[in-house]
Design goal:
The complex is a heterodimer.
Chain A: H1 2-43, H2 49-53, H3 67-97, H4 102-115, H5 119-134, H6 138-162, H7 166-174, H8 179-190, H9 192-207, H10 211-216, H11 234-242, H12 247-278
Helix pairs in contact in A: 1-12, 3-6, 3-9, 3-11, 4-6, 5-6, 6-9, 7-8, 9-12, 11-12
Chain B: E1 12-23, E2 26-37, E3 41-45, H1 52-59, E4 69-77, E5 80-81, H2 89-94, E6 96-99, H3 111-121, H4 127-140, H5 144-147, H6 160-173, E7 178-182, H7 190-203, E8 208-212, H8 216-222, E9 225-230, E10 233-239, H9 240-245, H10 250-256
Helix pairs in contact in B: 3-4, 3-6, 4-6, 6-7
Classes of the chains: A mainly alpha, B alpha/beta.
Chain lengths: 286, 260
């Protein structure tokens, strides 16, 4: 009798805890759904053809869009990516493949620090380094984004390369290949889908950065004529329009927010899909 | 040494002299002396942690790739000490193939590329030559018939036993004179194990095989020579038939009869 009571008690207790865990998890994700719904509701109506093709019209004037901000963001994120991608991947390679190198510990510590450096600090840094001499420009914006991007890509590349079991490396070495060839021709091609996912997730991360761009590319009401002048970007436009006080500009800001969140959602979704399709299986791992 | 000089008609391929190996401060091998004969299968046996794997990893300079690992002594392959100052581990390893405990085809690489990669990365680009060497290696590894119609499939799509044969083909492709195998069947089921054992027997005409096993029956079935290791020391090195019928050392007898 005693035993069966404890059995019943234990089963019930287990069920209650399970339910609690489920409810709390649901609660934790609720804000995201609410944000998504809120941004969709407020922003979707602002999305139309003009939104992507026209530059902002003044307050009170109908029409206009965020074309200059979208273009500026794309250009700056693109430049940051071109310069930061190989740099970040090589950083990850060093952290993972030369982890016993005397410098590796120090470097890992610095990378951890720079991942958690507030982006506004990076903005101020580039401001005093470049902007105070050469003025606001897309270059400065891209430079700030790149500084944020490199340690993120480095960390993700490190984690991905560490997942490759060590005997794969040894098999390459045992074939008489130098270590750098093992890395470049075996490890990186073998994990390229996952490395690529890491890279585009970090792009999603920097695409929404506002603070560093305020100090570096500033913003522009028109299309920039060159990379050397102040350049509009989507996050800065959202920031400025939302505090403008004009209902039509605020609506435009919501549209921009909706575009950004859709972009992030799209990127996350497509990387999941990519990993699902291309993930290498180490099926003989125990 | 185990052989009387007069009886040694076989050619020696590898001569191990006073080899000791360490991982940081702990010694894994002490003063190993051993002759490995050409075109024979030598089995390295012994209980877990006795230094079997460390020993064969010293034969292709893979031991030094582990953090904190170092060694003393000489390994003379075809008359040259592979640990000579200035000898290049990369070049040495091209002459010594290795197969690992877990089948490890390179991720994301086709069956063809897995076999061809050693050749490709050492500079061979001619397609016809690559095709020929890939086919020959796969035939030698007894895998050709099963994979010839889908060479472009991923190496990881094969079964465990096939993957291990693919790894053997990969190692054979660069024409090594020695093949090291570190418990090549311990991750495989019995049928694949039998395949690999048969393969080792066939391979000894082309390469000298040194393999580690923790399975004494396997060593008895496959090998010509047995080296019995215990606590980092070579206890006995003998002809396989003699080792099992009249071992020279009482510890060998204890091990054979399962008293460990």
């Amino acid at each position: 009798m005693r035993d069966s009571f404890y059995y019943f008690f234990r089963k019930t207790y287990n069920k209650i805890m399970l339910l609690l865990i489920f409810l709390l998890s649901l609660l934790a994700t609720l804000p995201f759904f609410y944000i998504a719904y809120f941004v969709f509701q407020k922003g979707f109506s602002a999305i139309n053809w003009d939104f992507f093709t026209k530059i902002p019209s003044g307050p009170g004037i109908a029409g206009g869009g965020l074309a200059n901000g979208i273009l500026g963001s794309a250009v700056m994120v693109g430049m940051a990516c071109l310069a930061g991608l190989p740099w970040g991947v090589f950083l990850g390679v060093f952290l993972s493949e030369y982890r016993f190198h005397p410098l590796s510990k120090l470097l890992r510590f610095v990378v951890d620090l720079s991942v958690s450096t507030p982006s506004i600090v990076i903005g101020i840094f580039i401001y005093s380094l470049l902007v105070s001499f050469f003025g606001f420009s897309a270059y400065a914006g891209a430079m700030a984004l790149m500084l944020i991007l490199i340690p993120i890509i480095g960390k993700s590349a490190e984690e991905i390369l560490k997942m490759v079991p060590n005997h794969i490396r040894e098999a390459g070495l045992a074939l008489g290949l130098p270590r750098w060839k093992v890395i470049l021709q075996i490890l990186i091609p073998g994990t390229v889908a996952m490395l690529f996912s890491g890279v585009i997730l970090s792009i999603a991360r920097i695409a929404g950065e506002t603070a560093p761009l305020l100090f570096t590319s500033l913003g522009n009401q028109f299309f920039s004529k060159s990379l050397n002048e102040p350049t509009a970007s989507l996050p800065v436009q959202i920031y400025e329009f939302s505090k403008s006080g004009f209902p039509d500009l605020e609506a435009m800001a919501w549209g921009g927010a909706f575009l950004l969140i859709s972009f992030v959602f799209f990127i996350n979704f497509s990387t999941r899909l990519l990993i699902f399709i291309r993930k290498p299986s180490y099926k003989n791992e125990f | 040494m185990s052989f009387k000089k007069g009886k040694m008609k076989q050619k020696t391929l590898i001569e191990v002299k006073a080899l000791s190996a360490w991982f940081k401060k702990s010694q894994a091998l002490s003063n190993i002396n051993l002759l490995i004969e050409k075109n024979k299968v030598t089995a390295i046996i012994g209980p877990s942690g006795c230094g079997k794997s460390t020993f064969i990893r010293c034969l292709n300079r893979l031991h030094e790739e582990v953090e904190g690992a170092y060694l003393k002594g000489e390994v003379i392959l075809e008359g040259k000490n592979i640990y000579d100052l200035g000898s290049d581990p990369v070049l040495i390893r091209r002459n010594i193939g290795m197969v690992f405990q877990k089948p490890n085809p390179f991720p994301g690489m086709s069956i063809y590329d897995n076999v061809a990669i050693g050749l490709k990365l050492s500079g061979i680009k001619k397609r016809s030559l690559l095709d020929e060497r890939v086919e020959r290696s796969l035939r030698n590894a007894a895998l050709w018939k099963e994979v010839k119609d889908h060479l472009s499939r991923s190496g990881q799509s094969l079964s465990g036993g096939q993957q291990q044969r693919l790894c053997i083909a990969r190692a054979l492709a660069v024409n090594p004179s020695v093949m090291l195998m570190d418990e090549p069947t311990s991750a495989l089921e019995p049928i694949s194990t039998a395949w690999i054992e048969e393969l080792i027997q066939k391979l000894k005409n082309q390469v000298t095989v040194v393999f580690v096993t923790h399975n004494m029956q396997q060593a008895a079935r496959v090998s010509d020579r047995i080296a019995f290791f215990l606590n980092g020391e070579l206890v006995e090195f003998n002809k396989t038939s003699w080792f099992f019928t009249k071992p020279k050392h009482s510890k060998s007898e204890d091990y054979i009869t399962g008293r460990f």
